Automatic annotation (TrEMBL):
The keyword Cytoplasm does not apply. Keywords: Metal-binding, NAD, Transferase, Zinc. The active site is at H44. Belongs to the sirtuin family. Class IV subfamily. The lineage of its organism: Eukaryota, Viridiplantae, Streptophyta, Embryophyta, Tracheophyta. Its EC number is 2.3.1.286. Pfam families: SIR2. This is protein acetyllysine N-acetyltransferase.
Amino acid sequence: MPSMTHMALVGLEKAGILKFVISQNVDGLHLRSGIPREKLAELHGNSFMETCPSCGAEYYRDFELETIGLKETSRRCSDEKCGAKLRDTVLDWEDALPPKEMNLAEKHCRMGDLVLCLGTSLQITPACNLPLKSLRGGGKIVIVNLQKTPKDKKASLVIHGFVDTVIAGVMELLNMKIPPYIRIDLFQTILSQSLSSDKKFVNWTIRIASVHGLSAPLPFIKSIEVSFSNNQNYKEATLDTQPFLLKRRTVLTETFEIFLNLKFSDGCGCLNTRIEIPFNFQDSIEGFKLDKNATLEKMRDAAIEDSKCGQNAVVERKTVLVPKSEMTVHAIVTNVKTFDYQLSNGDMKPIKEGLNGLKTTRKQRSKGRKRKTRL
């Protein structure tokens, strides 16, 4: 889950103060927090991102990929004109830094008036040298880290402290609130129906699946309890292993509601939520596609106002006539986290101001591991 610092950076970006983020982490939390992809360079990759080596398309997943080292995954590019096998984006130690990410990082460091180095030892090259590029254009460097770094003597300000504490102080001085973190996950329900051979019954199947593919995992759902509006005729079921799939047979003319009680995995902000799916074989079904961004924004506003998660909404429905099936994409708020903070005078301690102050010795500057720069 994104930290206070992650969300403070989102607030600074939305205010136009923060122009670009360079990350050496592979946890994907900057993207998840809300930093726009075009304002983010992930130098070592993202364990939730796979990319197409042919057309360059990126796919951000809600599950951690099964490989590292730029290897092929089990999925293909969804572009019908492409269809190439996708690869993970996480570098192994022998892998060179991606030139696209590195070039953007260098560009923004050269342009930056101020480079903030937050929670990094600044020892892994060539990434550790990126902040120095701002100095050539008159920019300044601020380092926030618990321990000393080899670049401390180049910084205008060094603070040895917890990044969350320091960033909370910055937001307070700027009179800015740290935005809450609202996580919204997507999944799809697939309701397939067909007539029995004697045309007296409807054989139907409901499947709860990832929007990233039928074989992709659903990490935020632990189990699903299925019940019906007509309890005396239909037996309830509990689906506790993936794929979440239920088959039933009903009378042709019968109509009812299918209730899905979704039990969330550990780490989600609420235990469960319920969605309803109408069943009527004789009715024609129509597809639609809502304004996804507008729907998600309304869900975020409601989650903030209620200070709780579990809200859900339909964002898209596709239909197929033969065999008759209905695929519905649901959005659901699985986490709401707000950030309240109080600062005391002893929480953060400025170590150095000005360009000539703190000294470091060779013993204090341990040699970092080097990565290749791919040209």
